[in-house]
Amino acid sequence: MRVLVTGAAGFLGRHVANHLLTQGHAVTGFDLARGGHPDIRWIQGDLGDFGSVDAAVVGHDVICHIGAVGDVYLAAEQPELAARANVVGCAHIGRAGASHRARVVYASTWEVYGSPRYEPIDEDHPCDPDHPYSITKLAGERMLIAADRLHDVPVLALRLGTSYGSGLRPNSVFRIFIDKARRGDPITIQGDGAQGRQFTHASDIARAFVLACTSDLRRRTLNIVAPVTISIKELAEAVVARYPTELSFGSPRPGDVAPALVSAERAAHELGWRAEMDFESGFSELMDAH
């Protein structure tokens, strides 16, 4: 299978591309930056430029569309940039997929649901995002589902849990806590730290993408989240247990997503996917890697 991975030079894109390679698939990376994996063919291009996207899709069976403005703080500061990459980019992927008969697997996010109206949140829960990042991710998802309906592009959207693993961005909460503790700097938790996340290891997410690439499911959304919720306070305490430093609490960060319990049961039944990496093992691996 020939797979185009957009955002392949980024954290999650690298994990997905590498996992596809280990499964014997031919992988092309598409990104503004150029990655360094010798077994991946690289195309530098901009999701906002349809000509670049269309040319990259030629000859591929599947597009793993991961490229996006994924930094929530950047999306808040420059919503027009997030809209160009996350919405216009999806429109271009859908159009190119239709032209070249390529299946699309889209990296959406659990954050599209907004504040929970009931828990656990399943895929039938209403979507009511209120942040430029999650708003644009939902808009991109709907652009692609529309391409499926209107132009017969097989689309499957994966609503991903908060991902972690080796190669995380420096401004991720994991890296912030770990880097500060290693330097002996104090760690400040924004709020009371009770807010929880279903941290999902990048290897589990990559496995979900491979399953989705070879699945016949289409015009669907699936939650891809680990079952265990870890609070920010528990995360900070785990870091401090390894690298002792002062732990304090500050004001809540404006725009932080409300915690929610999300169900991945539909992915288990329809895609055959369940998270396999327990948090303790994944966290230990991350601590050893950074």
Explain what you see.
- With 290 residues, the protein is α/β, with parallel strands linked by helices.
- The chain has a domain at 2-164 and 199-226: 3-Layer(aba) Sandwich (Rossmann fold).
- It has helices at 11-22, 50-57, 72-77, 79-100, 132-151, 173-183, 202-213, 232-242, 265-270, 279-289; strands spanning 2-6, 26-31, 41-44, 62-65, 103-109, 155-160, 163-164, 187-190, 196-197, 200-201, 220-224, 230-231, 247-250.
- The protein has a seven-stranded parallel β-sheet with strand order 3-2-1-4-5-6-11, sandwiched between helices. Strands 7-10 form a two-stranded parallel ribbon. A two-stranded parallel ribbon has the order 8-13.
- Helix 1 (11-22) crosses helix 7, helix 4 packs parallel to helix 5 (132-151) and helix 6 (173-183) runs parallel beside helix 8.
- The radius of gyration is 18 Å and the shape is globular.
- The mean pLDDT is 95.
Keywords:
13 strands; two-stranded parallel sheet; Rossmann fold; 290 residues; alpha/beta
Terminal residue distance: 33 Å
Q: What class would the helix/strand composition place it in? A: alpha/beta
| Biggest pleated-sheet summary | 7 strands, parallel
- Mass-distribution shape: globular
In order across it, which strands form the biggest sheet?
3-2-1-4-5-6-11
Mean pLDDT: 95
CATH topology value of the domain at 2-164 and 199-226: Rossmann fold
Number of strands: 13
Going by CATH, the homologous superfamily of the domain at 2-164 and 199-226 would be NAD(P)-binding Rossmann-like Domain
What's the CATH C level of the domain at 2-164 and 199-226?
Alpha Beta
SSE string, helix = H, strand = E? EHEEHEHHEHEEHEEEHEEHEHH
